[in-house]
Sequence to fold (221 residues):
Amino acid sequence: MRGKMWLIMLFSLLAISGCGEQQATKVVRYSQPQVCEFATTMAQLDAQRPDPKQLRFLNETWRTLLTEERFRPDEKPIAAQRMTELNYYLARDTLQLLDKVLGITAETYEEIEALRRFASNPKEMKVPDSMIRNYRNAVQACCADAVSRNATALLRAEKESGLYAVGRRAYFMQRDVNALLDNELTFADYRQKLDAAKSKLPAMAPKLKLDTDWVTCRKQR
Fold:
């Protein structure tokens, strides 16, 4: 009987010890592989002058990860803040691209105006198809795709922000240049619109924090 009592006491001690070990064990919740890859790509950016092409790719990845709900609750706000800071540089890139489009548009406008001066009915004059085609090709070769992708990224920002204001100018680029060429909008007025959007951006570029300390990734073997 006494032997059985010792066995019972021994099993009780083992059970208590086992529970203590389980309580002391910390469960590590790893980041999803797609998030780890996203964080690594972000960390590889130039913190002083991030490449706009890489920023456009990063924004597309960011949207996919959000849609697929890949982020942990603690990761999402950190990633969002870092993307907002990175998109300051994308907004600056957008303004530079719109400046290039404005230059191309101004050259085409002068060519069209030269024809209008000799037209019997300038308001009804048909612009030659070749001139329109050359203009579209020049804008496409320069900036059209980049401006469109930048707009998609920037329009996800808060509506009162400078990022959103620049994104709107990029989104309505085609409408605006058509208005310029048709004399429905002056170049001075359009320049004011660009300056107004630019004035909403922070005067100083944000200091980027791009390390991967916000994710918990498995070590690759």
About this structure: The two ends are 55 Å apart (CA to CA). The mean pLDDT is 89. Residues 102 and 177 are 8 Å apart (CA to CA).
